[in-house]
Amino acid sequence: MNFKTVFILLIALTSIVSTEAGFPDNFWAGGGFGSYRRLALASDEQVLRGPEFDDCLEEMYENALYADSSHVSYLAIPKNKDSNCPIIALDNGFSEEGVNFEQGGVLAPMLSILHEVPEEVLFLGYTVTLMYLLDAMDQLNPASYVIPEKEYNIVLNNCATYILDLMKEVGLDYKDPYTAANIENYVGKSIASNDITVGKIRKAYLEENKGIYHKASFYVWNFAVGDEGMTRALVRSYMNKMVEE
Questions:
Q1: CB-side exposure of 12: number of CA atoms within 13 Å?
Q2: Distant-in-sequence, close-in-space partners of 82: CB < 8 Å, separation ≥ 6
Q3: Cα(157)–Cα(27) distance, rounded to whole angstroms?
Q4: Are 39 and 47 in contact (CB under 8 A)?
Q5: Per the confidence metrics, is the pTM higher than 0.70?
Q6: What is the pLDDT along the chain (245 residues), one digit of tens a residue?
Q7: Is 76 exposed, middle or buried (0-12, 13-18, 19+ CB in 10 A)?
Q8: Cα separation of 74 and 194, whole Å?
Q9: How far are the Cα atoms of 121, 220, 229, 233, 239 from residue 75, in angstroms, in the given order?
Q10: Residue 110, by phi and psi: left (phi above 0), alpha (psi -120 to 50) or beta?
Q11: In sequence order, what are the beta bridge partners of 107?
């Protein structure tokens, strides 16, 4: 197995400039969901060769998503609840709380070791061994998912790309109607709960649909489906785009 994967560890789904900080503040402070450990794989290729991984390579892991208003992470959770194997969170974002584009930060793939499973995760009904997951991670070039501020677009180019590509490598079919609907509803509802995020999405849609007719049509549609309908449409369209690529 090749563990030469190079990851730059950062945090968040779409760092809507400074509004997306990743996991909730109490998570990063060691409260709420418990403590965590960030691994800088980009600076140490031996990170995934430690005993906490080596002893768990054949452990079965459940695949899940965790969304918190403007953030989504891909979780790998040991199927055996009594297991001492690590809970893994993969996401794309900033290196730490407080870092943002204005401070020169970029979004890039990150990995965290959690000590507790966050509440209200979406289990995707798919399990793989840890070895299989690490092999899938190894197939992705982290440099391809680095997003500087000038390339970031909440509608057309956000860090959900990394999570969806990881799903492909793991073999999870998010094109399946049942899976796609669950992801759309779960993530869309979470994003819709953040007024700032909703405002950023609305602004991005309007910038992409110029002209009085298009703007009027968008406002009518947004009024009809509501903010949650808009965010669900974003999640659905982004997944469809990734399927076609």
A1: 31
A2: none
A3: 26
A4: yes
A5: yes
A6: 443 332 222 222 223 233 333 333 333 322 334 445 655 444 344 555 566 677 889 999 999 999 887 778 899 999 998 988 989 988 887 655 555 555 556 777 888 888 889 889 999 999 999 999 988 988 888 888 888 878 888 888 887 888 999 999 999 998 899 999 999 999 999 999 989 989 988 888 888 878 888 888 888 888 899 999 999 998 998 888 887 76
A7: buried
A8: 20
A9: 9, 37, 25, 23, 18
A10: beta
A11: 147
- Quote the DSSP letter at residue 95: S
Residue 131 in tokens: 């070895």
**Are the CB atoms for 155 and 201 separated by under 8 Å?**
yes
Structure tokens given for 20: 């997306």
Joined tokens for residue 178:
């049942």
Length of the chain: 245
